[in-house]
Amino acid sequence: MKRLLLIYIIGVMAGWMRLAAQTPEPRFGVPFDFPLYLSGNFGELRSNHFHGGLDFKTQGVVGKPLLAIADGYISKVTVTPGGYGNALYLTHDNGYTSVHGHLDRFLPEIAELVRKKQYAEQAFAVTLEFGPDEFRFRQGEVVAYAGNTGYSFGPHLHMEIRKTATNEPIDPLTFYKDKIVDNIAPRATRIMVYGVPLLSPQGGKVLSVSQWENLETNEMSVEKKEPSVSSTLGGNEGGLVFYCWGRISAAISANDYMNGTHNNYGVRYVRLYVDDKLVSSSDVDRFSFDENRLINSWTDYAEYRRLGRWYMRSAVAENNPLRMLRATDNGWVTIDEERDYYFRYELEDLYGNRSTYRFVVRGKRMDIPQRLPNYFYYMDASRDNRFYTNGFELWLPQGSLFDDVELDYEVLPSESAADYTSHYRLSQTPQPLWHAAEITIPFFEDCDIDPSKLYIARVDGKRRTYCGGTYEYGHIKANITELGSYTVCADTIAPKITPIGSTSWRKQGRIVCRIADAETGIRDYRGTIDGRWVLFKYSSKNARLTCDLRAEGIGPGRHRVEITVTDMRGNVRVVSFEF
Question: For residue range 497-550, what is the model confidence (pLDDT) as tens digits?
Fold first, then answer.
């Protein structure tokens, strides 16, 4: 009897413990009092990062009241010329924090504190933080007004939901499935296949009905064969057939879609099966900000840089710990039997809408070209790597590389008068790095140029991208985030300041100027009226400086405005206007 009683007590305690361990699913209210439509979803593939939230349409206008989606308090506000623009951080009582970006304006009491901070720091970009007892609110109360500030190209609200304890964004759509209609399945447009590179990534080839190309890499051979059916890629019946031998992986380009909009979105679930066995999968449900650059390893980085197309790869690099990915044998498939291998891609959204794409790999024994690596150029992803030759140096700290690579190093002649050195090529196709590497280029030329104006630039055809750099003892050193081609350039030209509509400044009640720098970009700016610092708002998306004359207390009479702009190499332009 005592034993039965003891078992009963243990069972009850275990049940209590299970109930205590279960965290109830949080509930969130709507951010607006009108029907919700999205212009962007969580986890969309973006340059060097995942989209961290939902973009809600605001009916094409700015100024819509933003409602608190749960009880809590205002914990932070930020103002920046790009990025989120005016942003509001709401820490909720349920363990989550919501972030609201591109706002038109804050509540009056918050706006006044922001303005005081801007004047105290004499800066447009500021951050303010608040405690839990300063600005509390209840769900449904107005906390700000939606807009189009920052790096936004149309009125909308960017909204994130993060776990407060870890600051990790999660998919907010989980909480709004009943508020947004979606019965449209994701759709693919292209599929690529790749062979295992011996040491450095090789490009894949697009598979389509209208175009078929031979593919040969170090560990794979493919023989040309026409598709078995004449239908465009995307039909659920598939029809793509090709011969190959060796280890291969695949990649797919696809988007999701929703009812009532013309936008396209990222795909929540992507799964690749071979002979009904799951080879790789992705679930874009969460990520940490430290994982953002891992997007460049999951996707085909070179193809995105070349054509702006996103391909999600089945292969997972050895040094890519992105948690949303799962793979068997790192997502590679060995074709070592003379038979048909049945590949199947499944795309699915959060609502369960699903589409399927099939193609066949027919195994055919072929010779695979092999070669021994050049170990002078070999870079091991598991350790630090240093490459040095003739004054040129590359330092790759452990964790920089996603996979082992063999540098495709070559010194090439410059093709532009803007270049002060030859081109130092590390790879024919751009290869992303997870963490920055350090590059050092020799510069011993006897010239009159001020060394502080020199910088290292990434070479993309005729385009030069500023990478920064410092000059020391005949060398220029900078951090880089991809293996590509680099040279040394100089920026001796100050930024341009162009007044816009100066004859109507008084009538419109504002000063508007465009500031731009052709080479290295804007570092900072400053504006005064009659010798007094005044607030100029800066928008990086259109390079506009704007000063509200009424807000600054500028009354009738003649006034002198002076604007100073400095670029990344310290070149300064000062312009004065009377109005």
Answer: 999 988 888 888 999 999 999 999 999 999 999 999 999 999 999 999 999 999
Phi, psi dihedral angles at 98 (to 5 degrees): -105, 140
What phi, psi does 121 have (nearest 5°)?
Answer: -95, -5
Three-class DSSP category at 277 = strand
Q: Is the separation of the CB atoms in 256 and 265 below 8 Å?
A: yes
The single-letter code of the amino acid at 186 is P
Residues 244, 200 share a domain = yes
Q: Does residue 508 share a domain with residue 448?
A: no
Find, among 98, 13, 517, the residue nearest to 89 by Cα: 98
216: which strand partners? 221
Residue 438, CA distances (Å) to 78, 377, 394, 472, 520 in order? 32, 16, 6, 14, 19
Instruction: Please tell me the pTM assigned to this model.
Output: 0.87
Cα(525)–Cα(279) distance, integer angstroms: 53
- Asked if residue 495 lies in contact with residue 565, where contact means CB atoms within 8 angstroms, the answer is yes
- How far apart are the C-alpha atoms of 502 and 545, rounded to whole Å? 13
pLDDT greater at residue 503 or residue 240? 503
State how beta strands 240-255 and 354-363 pair.
parallel
Q: Where do the H-state alpha helices sit in 412-522?
A: 505-508
Counting Cα atoms < 13 Å in the Cβ hemisphere of 436 gives 8
Whether 547 and 579 have beta carbons less than 8 Å apart is answered as: no
- Interatomic CA distance for residues 5 and 81, integer angstroms: 68
Which pair of tokens denotes residue 179?
A: 């508020």
Q: Within a domain: residue 372?
A: no
Three-state DSSP state, 46: strand
Phi first, then psi, for residue 386 (nearest 5°) are -130, 125
Considering just the CA atoms, what is the radius of gyration of the chain in Å?
28
Expressed as residue numbers, the domain containing 507 is 496-578
pLDDT tens digits, 474-501:
899 999 999 999 999 999 999 999 999 8
Phi, psi at residue 40, to the nearest 5°?
A: -160, 150
432-473 residue pLDDT tens: 999 999 999 998 766 778 999 999 999 998 999 999 999 998
Residue type, 392: F
Q: Which amino acid is at 303?
A: E
Residues in contact with 523: Cβ distance below 8 Å, sequence separation at least 6, in sequence order: 566, 567, 568, 570
Q: Which of 461, 490, 519 is the last residue of a domain?
A: 490
Tokens 């040969």 locate to 216
**Is 249 in a helix, a strand, or coil?**
strand
Q: Which of 255, 214, 270, 206 is nearest to 233 (CA)?
A: 206
**pLDDT reading at 228 higher than 70:** no
Instruction: Specify whether 435 is located in the same domain as 338.
Output: no
CA distance 579 to 574: 17
Q: What tokens appear for 459 in the block? A: 């070479």
- Cα separation values, 489 from 183, 408, 414, 420, 480, Å: 53, 22, 11, 5, 15
For residue 419, give Cα distances in angstroms to 7, 406, 482, 498, 568. Answer: 81, 26, 20, 28, 18
| Residue reference for tokens 């299970």 | 18
Do 232 and 377 meet the contact criterion of CB atoms below 8 Å apart? no
Residues 345 and 447 placed together within one structural domain of the fold = no
